């Protein structure tokens, strides 16, 4: 009885408000007064609902992922099938094109129907009033404002009705219908008609037919009750057929056409749109790690908000179209090769990063892991002191870089920083140092093996001899670089690493890299600092670009909902190294992958000849392994492409990769060069000047 009286009272008040608006409005709060109603109606017409951001590969067609809080994409009214427009008007507001925002006859009809049933069977809200209610919720800044926009009170109904009439004075009927169709909720996280057509029928709203349109129009009143996906469709069929009858009643449809559809089942083609790099359907999950790197990059860009949280909200609600730097073909190659080279120890991560010199654009990020939160079937953690599952084969950790987590020691690849510091200081490539199997340096060591001095030795006795930068780098002679950093200065070497983009990712590294201690950090040249694959790949990408340093960037174009292209995706580059210094480093780095080069004293072998052999063209680079073979690396480049490959255990860095795996990073990099550059014209490295090669 109370519900019946309350419903009658609300309806009566609404009618009174419309017939005697001055008397009704006098009782409302100041915010609902005439002046504020006019102001508020302008805000309502300018409402921008949250929109989904679409992220594509560099080809502009391959979907990488979506980002959204509410799956919604705006479409113009002429992009919605006319039959869908008619079905929605029939279901929600049959006199939409004749009333002024409030349907007086509908209010009376609803009051009579509800009184007869003893409950609320029919609503009196027009499409315009429903749009107003939704807009008020979207514009709400507090929970109280959300409640005020939806509470079942006479005051709210009166305010909504007055706003609806004001909106009708500012917008055309087509504009209101377009906004409503893009705002309405259809269930299954489908907000707006574009999302609804995608989720239920996997098609564009312009392609919807009669039975699909009637089904969707019937959902808006109660998406859960009429859900055709999870229910037995009895309720959904009844509601769809009711919509068909309404379309007949207002002459949108003939009875014969309606009868043909009434007997048909609801045939769905359900899709589950991807969100935040997870659940991608129809595209390989191999895009997940690149996608997550993009998300982390976006959170760091000041252009999208003051804080990381604000920036992510902008990504999830801003409706951007983002063309990334990802090359889907190279990505597939990278994933194939890192997985083909899988170790028998599945705990070991094997990954590769591919970049473009001169722009910093990331072309691929391959990893022998699946980007997934579902880790219930993962193997045990490789750290024996941890009683929990490890991050293999499924993980969402940024193994290749981009997060705040630490990295992995990169071994002899760090010799590049000592060589660059020496070249930058004026040492020539032919700078010769007698390099025995073990050498004592001036750097202090905690060990007593060499009288308290740091005294590294070579990987093999055959490396000993008179070496210069060509042979020392090509053969990876530890004692040559131990003496070179002693002469150039460890502080200059650490400074060079910082110039090339390295960050200190552990307390220990930050301690030794501090201004007061870096001059004593001789072991730095052998790669004792942690580094992420993405940043180490970019070091060699800078050499490939002849000293032009570019920040790693995953975005090619960023377009806002108005079609304006933002400059946030513009490469951020500056000349960090003298071109001649970079070319000289490249000349020495070619000794790593090539032997018996004309005009270069590369020594009897290079540590990574297999890369040059697989690539089938000149490649410069450097391999690296750490003490105990805990990680293996190869970082290399041509003038057109840079590849960084590594293998390590990201869960437990003390778990060795083993001697049998130390060549896999080289093989993977060589195969990526071979396949990615197939059919691409070879570009030759530019030689350095004679002055920087020879110290005559």
TrEMBL record:
Residues 351-675 form the Penicillin-binding protein transpeptidase domain. Residues 68-247 form the Glycosyl transferase family domain. InterPro entries: Beta-lactam/transpept-like (IPR012338), Glyco_trans_51 (IPR001264), Glycosyltr_51/Transpeptidase (IPR050396), Lysozyme-like_dom_sf (IPR023346), PBP_transglycosylase (IPR036950), PCN-bd_Tpept (IPR001460). It catalyses: [GlcNAc-(1->4)-Mur2Ac(oyl-L-Ala-gamma-D-Glu-L-Lys-D-Ala-D-Ala)](n)-di-trans,octa-cis-undecaprenyl diphosphate + beta-D-GlcNAc-(1->4)-Mur2Ac(oyl-L-Ala-gamma-D-Glu-L-Lys-D-Ala-D-Ala)-di-trans,octa-cis-undecaprenyl diphosphate = [GlcNAc-(1->4)-Mur2Ac(oyl-L-Ala-gamma-D-Glu-L-Lys-D-Ala-D-Ala)](n+1)-di-trans,octa-cis-undecaprenyl diphosphate + di-trans,octa-cis-undecaprenyl diphosphate + H(+); Preferential cleavage: (Ac)2-L-Lys-D-Ala-|-D-Ala. Also transpeptidation of peptidyl-alanyl moieties that are N-acyl substituents of D-alanine. One of its GO terms (biological process) is peptidoglycan biosynthetic process. It comes from Glycomyces algeriensis. Residues 1-26 form the signal peptide. It comes from the Bacteria. Keywords: Carboxypeptidase, Cell shape, Cell wall biogenesis/degradation, Glycosyltransferase, Hydrolase, Multifunctional enzyme, Peptidoglycan synthesis, Protease, Signal, Transferase. This is Carboxypeptidase. In the C-terminal section; belongs to the transpeptidase family. GO terms for molecular function: penicillin binding; peptidoglycan glycosyltransferase activity; serine-type D-Ala-D-Ala carboxypeptidase activity. GO terms for cellular component: outer membrane-bounded periplasmic space. Gene3D superfamilies: Biosynthetic peptidoglycan transglycosylase-like, DD-peptidase/beta-lactamase superfamily.
């Amino acid at each position: 009885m109370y519900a019946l009286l309350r419903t009658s009272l609300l309806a009566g008040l609404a009618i009174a408000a419309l017939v005697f608006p001055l008397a009704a409005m006098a009782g409302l709060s100041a915010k609902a007064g005439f002046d504020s109603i006019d102001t508020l109606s302008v805000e309502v017409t300018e409402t921008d609902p949250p929109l989904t951001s679409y992220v594509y590969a560099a080809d502009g067609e391959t979907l990488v992922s979506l980002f959204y809080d509410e799956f919604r994409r705006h479409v113009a009214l002429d992009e919605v099938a006319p039959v869908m427009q008619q079905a929605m008007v029939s279901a929600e507001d049959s006199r939409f094109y004749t009333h002024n925002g409030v349907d007086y006859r509908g209010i009376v009809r609803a009051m009579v129907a509800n009184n007869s049933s003893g409950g609320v069977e029919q609503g009196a809200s027009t499409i315009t009033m429903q749009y107003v209610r939704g807009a008020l919720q979207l514009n709400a800044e507090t929970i109280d404002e959300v409640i005020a926009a939806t509470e079942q009170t006479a005051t709210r109904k009166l305010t909504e009705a007055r706003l609806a009439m004001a909106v009708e004075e500012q917008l055309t009927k087509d504009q209101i219908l377009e906004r409503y169709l893009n705002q309405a909720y259809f269930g299954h996280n489908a907000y707006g008609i574009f999302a609804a057509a995608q989720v239920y029928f996997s098609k564009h709203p312009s392609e919807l037919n009669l039975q699909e349109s009637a089904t969707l129009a019937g959902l808006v009143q109660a998406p859960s009750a009429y859900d055709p996906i999870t229910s037995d469709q009895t309720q959904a069929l009844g509601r769809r057929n009711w919509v068909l009858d309404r379309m007949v009643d207002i002459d949108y449809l003939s009875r014969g056409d309606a009868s043909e559809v009434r007997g048909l089942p609801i045939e769905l083609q359900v899709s589950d749109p991807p969100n935040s790099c997870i659940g991608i359907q129809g595209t390989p999950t191999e895009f997940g790690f690149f996608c997550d790197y993009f998300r982390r990059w976006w959170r760091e860009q000041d252009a999208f908000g003051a804080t990381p949280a604000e920036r992510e909200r902008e990504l999830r609600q801003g409706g951007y179209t983002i063309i990334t730097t990802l090359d889907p073909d190279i990505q597939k190659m990278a994933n194939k090769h890192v997985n083909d080279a899988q170790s028998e120890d599945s705990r070991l991560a094997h990954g590769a990063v591919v970049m473009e010199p001169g722009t910093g654009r990331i072309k691929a990020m391959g990893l022998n892991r699946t980007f997934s939160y579902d880790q219930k079937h993962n193997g045990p953690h490789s750290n024996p002191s941890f009683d929990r599952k490890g991050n293999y084969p499924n993980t969402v950790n940024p193994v290749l870089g981009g997060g705040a987590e630490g990295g992995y020691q990169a071994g002899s690849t760090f010799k590049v920083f000592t060589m660059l510091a020496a070249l930058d200081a004026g040492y020539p490539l032919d700078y010769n140092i007698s390099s025995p199997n073990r050498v004592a340096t001036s750097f202090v060591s905690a060990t007593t093996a060499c009288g308290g001095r740091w005294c590294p030795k070579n990987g093999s006795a055959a490396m000993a001899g008179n070496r210069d930068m060509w042979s020392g780098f090509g053969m990876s002679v530890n004692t040559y670089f131990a003496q070179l950093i002693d002469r150039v200065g460890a502080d200059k070497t650490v400074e060079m690493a910082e110039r090339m983009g390295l960050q200190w990712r552990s307390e220990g590294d930050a301690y030794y890299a501090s201004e007061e201690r870096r001059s004593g950090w001789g072991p730095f040249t052998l790669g004792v600092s942690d580094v992420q694959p993405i940043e180490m790949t970019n070091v060699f990408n800078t050499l490939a670009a002849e000293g032009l340093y570019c920040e790693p960037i995953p975005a090619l174009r960023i377009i806002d909902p108005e079609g304006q292209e933002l400059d946030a995706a513009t490469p951020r580059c500056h000349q960090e190294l003298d071109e001649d210094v970079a070319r000289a480093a490249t000349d020495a780095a070619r000794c790593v992958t090539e032997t018996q080069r004309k005009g270069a004293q590369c020594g009897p072998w290079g540590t990574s000849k297999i890369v040059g052999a697989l690539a089938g063209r000149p490649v410069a680079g450097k391999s690296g392994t750490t003490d105990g073979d805990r990680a293996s690396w190869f970082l290399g480049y041509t003038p057109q492409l840079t590849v960084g490959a590594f293998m390590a255990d990201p869960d437990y860095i003390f778990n060795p990769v083993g001697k049998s795996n130390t060549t896999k990073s080289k093989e993977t990099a060589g195969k990526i060069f071979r396949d990615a550059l197939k059919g691409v014209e070879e570009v030759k490295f530019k030689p350095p000047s004679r002055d920087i090669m020879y110290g005559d």
